[in-house]
Amino acid sequence: MADPEQPQIYLISPSVIELSRFTAQLTAVLDAHDVACLRLALASHDEDAISRAADACREITTERDVALVIDTHIALAERLGLDGVHLTDGARSVRKARTALGPDAIVGSYCAQSRHEGISAGEAGADYVAFGPVGVSALGDGARAETELFTWWSEMIEVPVVAEGTLDEDMIRTLCTATDFFGIGDEIWGVNDPAAALAKLMAAVD
User: Which of 77, 118, 150, 201 would give a disulfide with 178, using CB separation of 3.0 to 4.6 Å?
Assistant: First the structure.
């Protein structure tokens, strides 16, 4: 098992997947690593496609005692029997999700770089907050979640925190004492052996 003092792995699916290929990759990754959670983060708005993907992933994660949450879709999380939902609008939908899914569901909240939004999400009942991107990216406005945000959060706030977005070995090494989870997705799925790529990244924690 992973050292409880070390950050855990929080996997994020690609936004577009070829289901048979992704499930094979996912199986290999979960068999090689201790993973706390998988977030199904599909860009598709096709309910049937999302449902098929969720069903296939749930079969794999359930066998390995890995939590499975879905981006945004509160109603689908409930209908498909998933472990919870990851919200992308900060604190705004946390109470709604908690009411819909109940006290035992996982409700997470992406709060970009906003300390205030993170605190509000925690007060509204989020089980974790995510900040990012932590690395340099040309996407969006280029803003980053700085190391100081994670350091402050880990010292002052009890709600677990996820560091995500363009992670590399240097950022993992820098943040490993200031975050509870590393949200890893595109960093590994685009290569031939995602399990090996994940091993290389997480070696920086050691």
Answer: 150
Phi and psi at 183, nearest 5°, equal -85, 105
Overall residue count recorded for the chain in this entry: 206
Structure tokens at 118: 């993170």
- List, in sequence order, every beta strand (DSSP E) within 14-112: 35-40, 67-71, 84-87, 106-110
The whole-angstrom separation of Cα 183 and Cα 179 is: 10
State the first-to-last Cα distance of the chain, in angstroms, to the nearest integer: 14
Give Cα separations from 16 to 7, 13, 64, 137 (angstroms).
Answer: 27, 8, 23, 20
Dist CA 116 CA 136 (whole Å): 22
| Residues in the chain with pLDDT values less than 70 | 1-4, 138-140
Closest C-alpha among 63, 5, 24, 6 to residue 202? 6
pTM equals 0.95
pLDDT digits (tens, 9 = 90+) for 174-185: 999 999 999 999
Give the pLDDT of residue 139: 62
* Segments of 43-196 assigned E as strands: 67-71, 84-87, 106-110, 128-131, 161-164, 181-184
